[in-house]
Amino acid sequence: MVEPKIKTSRRDFLKLGATMVGVASTVSAGNGAVVSSAALTPEALPTARKGDMLYRTLGSTAERVSALGVGGHHLGDLSTIDEAIRLVHEAIDAGITFFDNCWEYYNGKTENILGRALKGRRDEVFLMTKVCTHGRSGRLALQMLEESLRRLGTDHLDLWQIHGIVYDNDPELAYAKGGVLEAFDQAKKQGKTRFVGFTGHKDPAFHLKMLDLGYPFDTVQMPLNPFDAGFHSFEKQVLPEVNRRGMAALGMKSMGGTAWAVKNGVVTAQELLHYAMSLPVATTISGMDSLEVLHQNLRVVRGFKRMTDNEMDALRARCASTAADGRYEPYKVSLRYDNPMTRLPHGFPVDRTQREVAEMLEKGDAPWLAP
Q: How far, in Å, CA of 26 to CA of 28, rounded?
């Protein structure tokens, strides 16, 4: 399969900046030295700048992606589809290449929006979506893949990830015979995805179990923000292991999944994104529900300089008093960010009176639960 073209050629990219992309599992430290991705540290971020955008290597692959990614869910939150399409186009024009999505976001609405926005521009982006079998069969996963490809208007993904490893037995279900990992293997053989990975936001232990069972994932997505550092921390427990294995870490929920901490004056949105981008990740995926938020994020990237260790420590300390109970990371301590569809394959009943379930039913996010 022909590798999708990103905005610049590989040759042009290698000429960019002081940091150079290496081969296989090596990356440049930015000072001419080449270091193993297993030893990757924030000081050795494999970063290059072209115009106002930063680009980083995707783990041990030869691929590179924008250091800022566009989250897929919030494309469904913009006031109109035309505005969402405009946001995608402005993001691409600004140099963003990484686009996130998911089979179940708004019942496929956001994949359809992104597919419309990418008409004529597919080869300019690194396209990721997620499969939502939630422990069910690989056969179902492949059916979801075909539906995602149709919605997105493409014959292949750059990255296909398992959505939501949020139960302690999710790893065993993924690795089971006939499970989603067999679908990964088949999709790669068929050329329908180039890379594979998994996501989750509940507990670092579940991520570590997915890694320890041994599948050669290309990417691992996790919540990363200064509150996480003080409570069931993915940054402390999972991020070093992902980098040690030469996989690409993908950051999400830099705002804690909500803007509550920002609204309460604990920290600014700019500080949160700056912190997340200062970690050794390939990209930070940010939900952008307006052009204003896109422009705000682009200003952070435009002036980006990695936070010093002292600056990061100071921000963690400022967040520590409210981090310990998870109030600004509700996805760790509640079902708010767990689609109730995930409960059914695990044999748990869905409580229709639960606030999160009621909200999903009201928004039309769970037609399979509707009366």
A: 7
